[in-house]
Amino acid sequence: MTYITKPKFYHPALPKNALGYTHRDYEGKISTLCAGCGHDSITASIIEACFELAIEPHRVAKISGIGCSSKTTDYFLNASHGFNSVHGRMPSVLTGANLANRELIYLGVSGDGDTASIGLGQFAHAMRRGVNMVYIVENNGVYGLTKGQFSATADRGSKSKRGVVNADSSIDLVAMALQLGATFVARSFSGDKTQLVPLIKAAIEHEGAALIDVISPCIAFNNHEGSTKSFDYVREHNEAVNRLDFITARAPIKVDYEPGSVQVIEQHDGSRLVLKKVAADYDPHDRLGAMAFLQKHSAMGQVVTGLLYVDREPEDLHRHFNTVEAPLNTLSEKELCPGSAVLEKINASLR
Ligand SMILES: Cc1ncc(C[n+]2csc(CCOP(=O)(O)OP(=O)(O)O)c2C)c(N)n1
Ligand code: SF4
Ligand SMILES: [Mg+2]
Description:
This protein is an alpha/beta fold. Helices cover 30% and strands 19% of the residues. The strands form three sheets. The protein has an eight-stranded mixed sheet, sandwiched between helices. Helix 1 crosses helix 7 (193-205) and helix 3 runs parallel beside helix 5 (120-129).
């Protein structure tokens, strides 16, 4: 982790959000990533989303694994809870924290190596269990931190910087998340803040497992000709299915788009997702349709982006387990340990 902190200078004219906070209140330490790394743009989008949603930073728990991507939790939300875990283990650490305290907003940040290689099992179980979290994969197709080996998301036939051709099939995390039952599935591009910021805002408000796979070029090891995760490749092959606006439950609803090209999706908490359709026949409520669309377009070499699937009635892990609402650290000893008589009764019921 970096030790460089930012000077605490505030310009008095900086814009403030509903809490009276400026963007500076959502920043972290100075990034030590390579200048131009896609991951830094994702950090900027996370900061923007939290600023616009006027989130109290102490209500966020940011949890990551290992990699350049996983380092980024140090570069935003200085005043939030943070845990930089072991390689590929972010989902289980986050699941445990979430079970202990459901009142926090859980932001899991990972890389394609961290998620699709060593952490694939962990990723799968967080998605299928419906852990209420925003799972951001900063996907560059390589292990950036360990100097650019192909990761499991590198496309077959794509070339490394030294010209080696990747012979293995790639893992599409979006396709997996759809199959595993995630209730909010999106793909975006680090260079498209207009698309990414509302997706992050909507995913934060979504009360279930939300995956955002963000293609995030590694300028040091995977931004050359022959790569399918370079800035040029993604810009040329980006196939957006929709454009999203996010409106919180608190804001007045003002929709001024062409009828027919817009779809308003109401979420559980009253917030609204305003989807401007780009692909006219794309339906973000059709899980099977999303899977077929994705396969068809990836076979054509296209990178499908946008909100690909959302379930209006998500269920999360706590609902499945019927857990107590209060964070465990607010329960008294008596509540946590109801005594030997109760234990005896439970044991008797199991005999
Ligand atoms: C258990 C374990 N195995 C291997 C490593 C070495 N290692 C560190 S980061 C990394 C891959 C990171 O790739 P990715 O998650 O894609 O992040 P990026 O650096 O590309 O953002 C590996 C293999 C490790 N730290 N721990
Ligand atoms: S090595 Fe790649 S992923 Fe890591 S900081 Fe540099 S550009 Fe970013
Ligand atoms: Mg990577």
